[in-house]
Each structure stands twice: as C-alpha cells, then as structure tokens.
Amino acid sequence: MRQAKPGRTDRQLSPEKTAAILEGGMQEFLTHGYAATSMDRVAIAAKVSKATVYSHFQDKESLFIALIQRLVEQRFQSIFGTADEQILQMPPQVVLRNFANRALDIGTTEPQFLNFMRLILGESGRFPQLARAFVRNIEQTAFRRLCHYFTHCPQLKLSDPEATARIFVGAVVHFMIVQEMLHGKDILPMERDRIVDSLIDLIVEPPLTDKFDTGCNTVSGG
Amino acid sequence: MRQAKPGRTDRQLSPEKTAAILEGGMQEFLTHGYAATSMDRVAIAAKVSKATVYSHFQDKESLFIALIQRLVEQRFQSIFGTADEQILQMPPQVVLRNFANRALDIGTTEPQFLNFMRLILGESGRFPQLARAFVRNIEQTAFRRLCHYFTHCPQLKLSDPEATARIFVGAVVHFMIVQEMLHGKDILPMERDRIVDSLIDLIVEPPLTDKFDTGCNTVSGG
DNA sequence: GTCTATACGGCGATAGAC
DNA sequence: GTCTATCGCCGTATAGAC
Question: Which of A56, A199, B34, B194 is least enclosed, having the fewest CB within 10 Å?
C-alpha cells in the first residue's frame, strides 16, 4: 500500500522491465481475471524473474491497480475518438450514427476491451477506486462529448441534454454488453442498426414526419 | 463435468445439506468471486465438512454452475415483477415510470443483486453458458414484457417496439451499472428521475407538443 | 538491479474411519 | 452419507548469490 508506481523505491529500476511487467500483467489479468492470475505467469509473460516483479511493484494488488489505472487513463481512454470541430455542420443523424457505431465497433473488433470491461465490472466491488477511475475517464468522456453536442447542435432542442446523453450512451453500451459481453447475439439476435435507427428517431426526428405529411413541419425539406 | 446437480450420484443425498451448500456457496461466491472463493470457506459457511461438499458436487466448477443457474432461474428471475393485466388502462407515463423505478430500486436496495451481476459480467468470458442463461432469464424477460406493452398499448405508435424496448431497458440498466455498480453516483451525481423523465418524454410525448402548438397535431387532445 | 532457490501457507481434491 | 486427516500442488513473498 506504500507505493503503486515504481521510481521511488530505493535505487533505479529499469523502465523497460517496468513496461514489460505491465504488459505481461495486462495479458494475464485481462485473460484470467484478478484472483486467478498468478505472479509466476506475470513474470513469465514479462520475461523477467518473479523477484524482479516484486522489486518493481510491492505486491499483486499494487501491480493490478497501477496496471488498470494505466489502461483507464491511456489505452482505452480515446475509444470515443477525438473531438471533431466540424460535427456541428453535419446532420445530427450522421453524427449520432457515427458516435454509436464507433462505440459498438469496439465490442466487436477489440476483444481485449471486452475483457477489460469484464475486469472493471467484476472487480468493482473489491476495487471501487478502479471503477471510479473508469467512470471518470471512459463513461464521463462519452457523456460530456455527447452532452456538449446535444447542447450546441442547433437542430436539437432537448429539454435535458445531460440525461439524454446518458440515455444514448446507456442504450448503446448496454446493447454491447448484452450482445457481445454476455453472448446475447447467439440467442437474441438483433441488428445494431435497429437500435441506432430507433435511437436517432427518438432523439432527432419528429415522430409524425415519416408516417404522414402534415404539411406544417418546418424542419424537413425547407 | 459428469454432473452438475445432485441426486444421481450413487445413493441418497440429504436435500437439506444440498440446500445448505448452495446457500453457503452463494454467500461466498457473491462476496469473493469465483476464483477467490475456496471450498473450505464454502463448507464452513454451509456448516458441513468439505468432503460432504464434494459428495454433493463433483468439483468447484460444478457447484458454481449449479448455483448460478439456480440464482438465474429462481432467485433473481422475477425482479421485473409479475405481469399486470391492467396496465393497458393506465397512462403510459405511469407504466413506464413504474417499470423503470422497479428495476432501479433493485440496484439501490439489493446489494446482493449487484454482486450477482458483477459475477455474471466478470465471469462471462470463462462461463459463457451462465451469461447466456442470464440473458435468457433476466434480460429477455424484461425485453419481452416491455415489448409486449409497447406493441399493445393503444397510445403508443412505435416504428420498432422491439428496438425501443431494448433502448429503454438499456438506458435504465446502464444507469444502474454506472451509478451503483461502478460507484458513479459519488462522482457523477444524477437524479434517477431525470433519466426516467427524459426516457418517457422521448418515447411517449410528441416532442413538439410542449414547445409550441402547431395546430395540426391530430394525436393530442383529440 | 536481476537472478536462482526457497519459505510457508492455503488451495482443490481424496482416503479411510464410522 | 458424513466426518477427520492428509496428499500434492501452487500461491505470494523473500533471502542471498552475482
């Protein structure tokens, strides 16, 4: 509990070995979970001796915390892409679809991210500080970016942009959790476009527009 | 792997001890997770000897599977309440609010359910059959009940009730995951009513109604 | 600073008494 | 059928050689 990161132990530790240990530990923790990961396999995966692992990190828990913190703050923080300054000129349907598809792509193309979320969720009771770091760096990033867009997009007049952003992210993330993480696509198949289309319809389009033309809708056509 | 449930071993096993082992195992697995749970503590929690545990269940994995299956199929299956036949006469706002509040109450009043979900999510990679059982018995139940309502409620004309049901459940469950399971309420406080209100607004109310009266909306007022 | 070798306890699973 | 006692293994963490 004295230290979570190296550099302040006694002498000078090799940064390359530190990186190797973090990399090896990531493989093991993401694959087997926290409790089922042994420091022996971490050392083997990092190609160092077990004593070297313990000279860089005080114990298993310190290594795990340092590792997850790094994943949360660096590796998986930018999953929602960089802020695009031109999105305000694009149609909201396109912006929201891109946002949802980028998030959903991660669940289908990056199995490591699924294991990362499994670890965060599964250990959120025993490592609440890691869960909070995840919320701050991943969830809040998505909320804020989307909420900023909802607030500044001239076509959208939402009564509660903040809550709407949470609804959007929640629907998308939960879909990913059920379909990919919990293997729901095997038993409850559902095309992602139906979720995204319905979400966009609920948030962007007036619900009567495509059913019959009332002749008084000032938004469509112009 | 030969057997997951007792009763077919060799002779006659005590059903009370079986129940005690399942109960003790539930406490241990829900508290410490799968890998960190020892069969010794399961035996102590069940107040039997370890050999008795192994006479009722072949190994740790069989006990875990039998236990989670039972939780999925019995203990936590009815969290969305029994079907109310009178809901079609109630206003959709009330029905949806009750549905959401009932689900969100579980996250705040039943910490065991949070640990149960942590276990399912965290072990979904190593025990995919348990994740699928969770989807079939919990998620699908919520989807179906809500989808049935969306389809039969005369006030609601949704283009894709099935996708809308997933969005509704997803937004609610994800809110519970972030706020309660991941301790997000400590750092991203948000009243649940804002989520529920916004969801109801998006699904039930025509978005233009309360902003300005266009005079050509044939739904509101009659 | 990094390695090999080891201490020591807890783990899952089993044998044998009754 | 349930218990006590035990096996063999692997866990974390450390000591001492270089």
Answer: B194
